[in-house]
Design brief:
With 186 residues, the protein is an all-alpha fold. Helices cover 69% and strands 0% of the residues. The protein has helices at residues 16-36, 43-49, 54-60, 64-81, 90-101, 103-106, 112-130, 138-157, 165-184.
């Protein structure tokens, strides 16, 4: 066995200081995004708010889009899960309500290249849950589901289409689950 690679059972857990710094940066990012908006903040602002140096920020993240992707990964989980779960989960309802309550912050994420990044990230998360390819590639199914989910949320967040968060969440779940089953069937 090579001296440079530890067997899995002897690998050290991630350094708590590294985890603490990363958590502080994510918290800082979320605080600043809520108070100033995504476009108004920089990596330097995030680092300063977290009380670390800018170089420390770059040890953990490649830039503002990278920290955004890490920040929203947990948020996107209920959307990805609803494509494979036959039973409606309350977490999805809470997420959709959260989007509505924070729609001023969510709207900038739902356009341009950030929207495309969100679609890709959500699509990758969905693809992980779909299982092996069938007649139709799961990556295509996942991208259709991701774009469909985010398009529905985007249109709803404009406020031009009246529906409660509960109804949106339940319809989003039903359509995502059904679409996944149809497209993955032989």
């Amino acid at each position: 066995m090579s001296d440079s690679i530890d067997p899995p059972s002897t690998r050290a857990a991630p350094d708590r200081r590294v985890q603490k710094t990363r958590a502080a940066l994510l918290l800082s990012f979320n605080d600043l995004m809520r108070s100033q908006g995504l476009d108004a903040i920089s990596a330097a602002d995030i680092a300063a708010h977290a009380n670390v140096g800018r170089s420390t920020f770059y040890e953990h993240f490649d830039g503002k889009d990278d920290i955004l992707a890490h920040s929203v990964a947990e948020v996107l989980t209920p959307l990805a899960d609803c494509c494979v779960e036959p039973v409606f989960a309350e977490e999805l309802g809470a997420l959709i309500e959260h989007f509505w309550q924070n729609r001023q912050m969510a709207r900038p994420l739902m356009s341009g290249r950030r929207y495309l990044h969100l679609c890709k990230q959500l699509g990758d998360m969905i693809a992980e849950r779909l299982g092996p390819d069938g007649v139709f590639p799961r990556a295509l199914v996942a991208q259709q589901l991701a774009h469909g989910q985010l398009a529905l949320i985007q249109a709803w967040l404009t406020g031009r289409h009246a529906a409660t968060a509960e109804v949106v969440a339940r319809k989003l779940h039903a359509s995502s689950y059904a679409t996944a089953r149809i497209l993955l069937s032989e």
